[in-house]
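Write out C-alpha coordinates for Transient receptor ion channel domain-containing protein.
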Amino acid sequence: SCDECSRSSRCMANSVILLDTYRAISSAPFLWLACTDPLLAAFNLVIDLQVCEEMENENKVAYRDLRHNVMTFAVKIVEQCWTTEEIHVLLSRKVGSPLADCELPFPRVQLALKAHMKPFLSSLGVQAAMEDHWRGMWTDMGKFKYQDLSRKFRHFLCYPILALLHAISAGYCIKTFKYPLARYISRLASYTLFLIILIFIRYFGRTGERSTERSLVNSCLF
Protein backbone atom coordinates (compact mmCIF):
# COMPACT_ATOMS: atom_id res chain seq x y z
CA SER A 1 0.00 0.00 0.00
CA CYS A 2 2.90 2.36 0.73
CA ASP A 3 4.33 1.69 -2.73
CA GLU A 4 0.97 2.46 -4.32
CA CYS A 5 0.66 5.70 -2.35
CA SER A 6 4.15 6.81 -3.31
CA ARG A 7 3.52 5.88 -6.94
CA SER A 8 0.24 7.80 -7.04
CA SER A 9 1.84 10.81 -5.34
CA ARG A 10 4.64 10.83 -7.92
CA CYS A 11 2.08 10.65 -10.74
CA MET A 12 0.14 13.54 -9.26
CA ALA A 13 3.33 15.54 -8.82
CA ASN A 14 4.34 14.91 -12.43
CA SER A 15 0.87 15.88 -13.59
CA VAL A 16 1.02 19.14 -11.64
CA ILE A 17 4.51 19.91 -12.97
CA LEU A 18 3.34 19.27 -16.54
CA LEU A 19 0.32 21.52 -16.06
CA ASP A 20 2.44 24.31 -14.58
CA THR A 21 4.89 24.00 -17.47
CA TYR A 22 2.11 24.38 -20.02
CA ARG A 23 0.71 27.32 -18.06
CA ALA A 24 4.07 29.04 -18.33
CA ILE A 25 4.61 28.45 -22.05
CA SER A 26 0.97 29.24 -22.88
CA SER A 27 1.19 32.77 -21.54
CA ALA A 28 1.11 35.61 -24.03
CA PRO A 29 4.42 37.19 -22.85
CA PHE A 30 6.28 33.91 -23.36
CA LEU A 31 4.83 33.40 -26.84
CA TRP A 32 5.59 36.98 -27.85
CA LEU A 33 9.12 37.24 -26.45
CA ALA A 34 10.55 33.72 -26.36
CA CYS A 35 9.34 32.44 -29.74
CA THR A 36 10.75 33.50 -33.09
CA ASP A 37 7.45 32.57 -34.76
CA PRO A 38 4.61 33.14 -32.25
CA LEU A 39 1.86 32.03 -34.63
CA LEU A 40 3.54 28.72 -35.43
CA ALA A 41 4.25 28.18 -31.73
CA ALA A 42 0.56 28.80 -30.99
CA PHE A 43 -0.49 26.21 -33.60
CA ASN A 44 1.83 23.54 -32.19
CA LEU A 45 0.89 24.40 -28.62
CA VAL A 46 -2.83 24.05 -29.33
CA ILE A 47 -2.25 20.55 -30.70
CA ASP A 48 -0.22 19.57 -27.62
CA LEU A 49 -2.85 20.98 -25.27
CA GLN A 50 -5.56 19.06 -27.08
CA VAL A 51 -3.62 15.83 -26.55
CA CYS A 52 -3.12 16.65 -22.86
CA GLU A 53 -6.81 17.45 -22.53
CA GLU A 54 -7.66 13.98 -23.81
CA MET A 55 -5.04 12.18 -21.71
CA GLU A 56 -5.16 14.09 -18.40
CA ASN A 57 -8.70 13.62 -17.13
CA GLU A 58 -7.96 15.23 -13.76
CA ASN A 59 -6.86 18.52 -15.34
CA LYS A 60 -9.07 18.40 -18.41
CA VAL A 61 -10.79 21.71 -17.68
CA ALA A 62 -7.47 23.47 -17.04
CA TYR A 63 -6.00 22.28 -20.34
CA ARG A 64 -9.17 23.32 -22.14
CA ASP A 65 -8.87 26.84 -20.71
CA LEU A 66 -5.22 27.01 -21.73
CA ARG A 67 -6.07 25.91 -25.26
CA HIS A 68 -8.77 28.58 -25.44
CA ASN A 69 -6.28 31.22 -24.28
CA VAL A 70 -3.76 30.20 -26.95
CA MET A 71 -6.48 30.39 -29.62
CA THR A 72 -7.34 33.89 -28.42
CA PHE A 73 -3.66 34.80 -28.63
CA ALA A 74 -3.55 33.65 -32.28
CA VAL A 75 -6.57 35.82 -33.06
CA LYS A 76 -4.83 38.81 -31.47
CA ILE A 77 -1.85 38.27 -33.79
CA VAL A 78 -4.12 38.63 -36.81
CA GLU A 79 -5.75 41.69 -35.28
CA GLN A 80 -2.34 43.38 -35.16
CA CYS A 81 -2.23 43.40 -38.97
CA TRP A 82 -3.35 46.71 -40.42
CA THR A 83 -3.76 45.77 -44.09
CA THR A 84 -4.75 42.72 -46.10
CA GLU A 85 -1.22 42.50 -47.51
CA GLU A 86 0.17 42.00 -44.00
CA ILE A 87 -2.32 39.19 -43.42
CA HIS A 88 -1.28 37.61 -46.72
CA VAL A 89 2.36 37.68 -45.61
CA LEU A 90 1.40 36.16 -42.26
CA LEU A 91 -0.65 33.34 -43.77
CA SER A 92 1.67 32.57 -46.67
CA ARG A 93 4.70 31.67 -44.54
CA LYS A 94 5.87 28.12 -45.22
CA VAL A 95 7.97 27.54 -42.10
CA GLY A 96 6.59 24.62 -40.12
CA SER A 97 4.30 23.38 -42.88
CA PRO A 98 4.62 19.96 -44.53
CA LEU A 99 6.14 19.85 -47.98
CA ALA A 100 2.77 19.01 -49.54
CA ASP A 101 1.20 22.16 -48.06
CA CYS A 102 3.99 24.50 -49.17
CA GLU A 103 2.47 24.69 -52.65
CA LEU A 104 -0.73 26.16 -51.23
CA PRO A 105 -1.18 29.95 -51.25
CA PHE A 106 -1.81 30.04 -47.47
CA PRO A 107 0.01 27.16 -45.70
CA ARG A 108 -0.76 28.63 -42.28
CA VAL A 109 -4.48 28.21 -42.90
CA GLN A 110 -3.88 24.49 -43.40
CA LEU A 111 -2.00 24.36 -40.09
CA ALA A 112 -4.89 26.13 -38.38
CA LEU A 113 -7.31 23.58 -39.83
CA LYS A 114 -5.22 20.71 -38.48
CA ALA A 115 -5.14 22.39 -35.05
CA HIS A 116 -8.94 22.96 -35.13
CA MET A 117 -8.49 26.67 -34.45
CA LYS A 118 -11.98 27.89 -35.31
CA PRO A 119 -11.62 31.35 -33.69
CA PHE A 120 -8.52 32.03 -35.79
CA LEU A 121 -10.10 30.82 -39.03
CA SER A 122 -13.32 32.73 -38.42
CA SER A 123 -11.58 36.01 -37.60
CA LEU A 124 -12.36 38.96 -39.83
CA GLY A 125 -8.85 39.36 -41.19
CA VAL A 126 -8.43 35.72 -42.21
CA GLN A 127 -11.88 35.64 -43.79
CA ALA A 128 -11.12 38.81 -45.76
CA ALA A 129 -7.83 37.36 -47.01
CA MET A 130 -9.53 34.13 -48.07
CA GLU A 131 -12.27 36.08 -49.85
CA ASP A 132 -9.70 38.16 -51.75
CA HIS A 133 -7.87 35.02 -52.84
CA TRP A 134 -11.16 33.37 -53.83
CA ARG A 135 -12.16 36.25 -56.09
CA GLY A 136 -8.70 36.91 -57.52
CA MET A 137 -8.76 40.00 -59.72
CA TRP A 138 -12.56 40.00 -59.63
CA THR A 139 -12.55 42.27 -56.60
CA ASP A 140 -15.68 44.09 -57.77
CA MET A 141 -17.71 40.88 -57.87
CA GLY A 142 -21.27 41.58 -56.72
CA LYS A 143 -21.20 45.33 -57.44
CA PHE A 144 -22.11 45.33 -61.13
CA LYS A 145 -24.79 42.85 -62.18
CA TYR A 146 -24.18 42.95 -65.93
CA GLN A 147 -20.44 42.51 -65.50
CA ASP A 148 -20.98 39.56 -63.16
CA LEU A 149 -23.46 38.06 -65.62
CA SER A 150 -21.00 38.38 -68.50
CA ARG A 151 -18.25 36.72 -66.46
CA LYS A 152 -20.50 33.82 -65.49
CA PHE A 153 -21.75 33.50 -69.06
CA ARG A 154 -18.19 33.44 -70.41
CA HIS A 155 -16.97 30.78 -67.98
CA PHE A 156 -20.14 28.69 -67.97
CA LEU A 157 -21.42 28.56 -71.54
CA CYS A 158 -18.11 29.20 -73.29
CA TYR A 159 -16.15 26.82 -71.07
CA PRO A 160 -15.11 24.31 -73.81
CA ILE A 161 -13.65 27.09 -75.99
CA LEU A 162 -11.95 28.85 -73.08
CA ALA A 163 -10.51 25.60 -71.76
CA LEU A 164 -9.10 24.75 -75.19
CA LEU A 165 -7.50 28.18 -75.57
CA HIS A 166 -6.12 27.97 -72.03
CA ALA A 167 -4.57 24.56 -72.71
CA ILE A 168 -3.08 25.55 -76.09
CA SER A 169 -1.61 28.84 -74.86
CA ALA A 170 -0.46 27.37 -71.51
CA GLY A 171 -2.48 29.96 -69.62
CA TYR A 172 -1.26 32.95 -71.62
CA CYS A 173 -4.53 33.82 -73.38
CA ILE A 174 -7.06 33.01 -70.66
CA LYS A 175 -5.67 34.20 -67.33
CA THR A 176 -8.91 34.12 -65.38
CA PHE A 177 -8.47 30.40 -64.72
CA LYS A 178 -5.97 31.44 -62.06
CA TYR A 179 -8.86 32.70 -59.92
CA PRO A 180 -10.51 30.04 -57.72
CA LEU A 181 -13.97 31.53 -58.34
CA ALA A 182 -13.53 31.31 -62.12
CA ARG A 183 -12.26 27.73 -61.85
CA TYR A 184 -15.25 26.84 -59.69
CA ILE A 185 -17.68 28.22 -62.29
CA SER A 186 -15.86 26.39 -65.08
CA ARG A 187 -15.80 23.07 -63.22
CA LEU A 188 -19.47 23.47 -62.43
CA ALA A 189 -20.07 24.02 -66.15
CA SER A 190 -18.07 20.90 -67.06
CA TYR A 191 -19.99 18.79 -64.55
CA THR A 192 -23.32 20.15 -65.81
CA LEU A 193 -22.28 19.43 -69.40
CA PHE A 194 -21.31 15.90 -68.40
CA LEU A 195 -24.73 15.32 -66.81
CA ILE A 196 -26.52 16.66 -69.90
CA ILE A 197 -24.54 14.38 -72.21
CA LEU A 198 -25.17 11.41 -69.92
CA ILE A 199 -28.91 12.08 -69.88
CA PHE A 200 -29.01 12.31 -73.68
CA ILE A 201 -27.05 9.08 -74.09
CA ARG A 202 -29.30 7.18 -71.69
CA TYR A 203 -32.44 8.62 -73.25
CA PHE A 204 -31.52 7.76 -76.83
CA GLY A 205 -30.18 4.40 -75.70
CA ARG A 206 -33.49 3.49 -74.12
CA THR A 207 -35.32 4.72 -77.20
CA GLY A 208 -33.19 2.43 -79.36
CA GLU A 209 -33.84 -0.56 -77.10
CA ARG A 210 -37.60 0.03 -77.22
CA SER A 211 -37.58 0.34 -81.01
CA THR A 212 -35.66 -2.94 -81.23
CA GLU A 213 -38.18 -4.65 -78.95
CA ARG A 214 -41.07 -3.31 -81.03
CA SER A 215 -39.48 -4.59 -84.24
CA LEU A 216 -39.01 -8.05 -82.70
CA VAL A 217 -42.63 -8.14 -81.56
CA ASN A 218 -43.86 -7.12 -85.01
CA SER A 219 -41.72 -9.77 -86.70
CA CYS A 220 -43.10 -12.45 -84.36
CA LEU A 221 -46.67 -11.39 -85.08
CA PHE A 222 -46.18 -11.59 -88.81
